[in-house]
Design goal:
The chain has 215 residues and is of the alpha/beta class. It is 38% helix and 22% strand. It is globular, with a radius of gyration of 16 Å. It starts with 5 loop residues before the first helix and ends with a helix.
Length: 215
């Protein structure tokens, strides 16, 4: 049974009509199913059916250990977004990107295809000054209407700088991480385990937090 109904499929086709570069989604899973592995595989496969620009590769986490380590896929389900020529865009999804986060997956695909972060010139310039890697984790729930704004802002920063990696982390699927970082409200953003905040700041404030985490 398809996860996407006909109206959603048609809308996605319209969204994907503007894709220019190829996009590859690496989906990490296991034969011994996690709660949402099957759903994540099915969802990404349905997206690939809607555009010849989108390709999906499914990998067993253990059998493809080296590849998983290369992309930091240490939890499942995981989706790694690669752009043209398998360029790593720094965008990750840990947990099924469904509910409100479906829009974040679509945006990540479009950014990977174009290679354009969509950030302001000021933000792009600020990111050029980074000298150390930044790992952003955005904790979300699939029923949170504000979470995609934080996820997509983090993902834009990752596309804008090779030193930034941005993860969507579905809090209920990874309660050990939610407990570790004290996630009591979402979205909660954690940068390099040094800077954390709740809510959705402006682009400038988000980049300022990122620069603070780089010090």
């Amino acid at each position: 049974m398809a996860l996407l109904d006909e109206s959603v499929r048609n809308e996605v086709k319209r969204e994907f009509a503007g894709l220019t570069g190829k996009v590859k989604l690496l989906v990490f899973t296991q034969e011994f199913e996690c709660d949402y592995c099957a759903e994540t595989r099915a969802l990404t496969a349905e997206l690939a059916e809607l555009s010849d620009k989108v390709e999906v590769e499914v990998h067993d986490l253990l059998a493809s250990k080296d590849l998983a380590e290369k992309y930091g896929a240490d939890m499942i389900p995981a989706v790694v977004v690669l752009g043209e020529g398998d360029r790593d865009c720094g965008n990750r999804f840990f947990g099924v990107p469904a509910g409100y986060e479906f829009s974040s997956l679509l945006e990540a695909i479009k950014m990977a295809s174009s290679g354009d972060s969509g950030l302001s010139l000021e933000a792009k310039e600020a990111l050029r000054g980074l000298e150390k890697p930044i790992h952003i984790q955005v904790f979300v729930t699939l029923t949170c209407p504000y979470c995609p704004m934080a996820v997509q802002l983090a993902h834009r920063c990752a596309v804008g700088s090779d030193l930034v990696r941005a993860d969507m982390v579905e809090a209920s699927e990874f309660p050990h991480l939610a407990n570790r970082y004290g996630v009591y409200a979402v979205p909660k953003v954690v940068m390099n385990e040094q800077v954390s905040f709740e809510g959705v700041p402006s682009e400038k404030a988000f980049v300022d937090y990122l620069l603070q985490a780089a010090t």
